[in-house]
Task: structure prediction
Amino acid sequence: MDRISKEHRSWNMSRIKGRDTKPEMIVRSALHKLGYRFRLHSRTLPGKPDIVLAKHKTVIFVHGCFWHRHENCKFAYLPKTRIDFWQQKFLKNINRDVQVKLLLEKAGWRVLVIWECQTRNIDRLCAHISNSLN
Result:
């Protein structure tokens, strides 16, 4: 049973951002620190990637561990209520991520996924980005 009202839950959920999230801003900062320039949320590409590095023909998705189900991550827990609803929602997210990745790769783009939990250590994040783009 939910401990808060339906209206308050709706308000909470409306505050969850889909872009310009803290992990996304950390990745952008790391890219700038490394000297990369990029575009944001390109509507012309499948899935509207968070970051597009056209020069490197690479797109970056900054995925939340909870919403996109980062395997073996403590942040990808399953809520205790409405389990069927959440499992279906997560499955749709995972399937959409797979389809978008396939479409982008078919179009010749390299797809890099950076997980929310990877943004907690900036030095490790910069090393991961450098290794992935070189």
Q: What stands out?
A: The radius of gyration is 16 Å. The chain has a mean pLDDT of 91. Residues 19 and 92 are 19 Å apart (CA to CA). The chain has five helices and four strands.
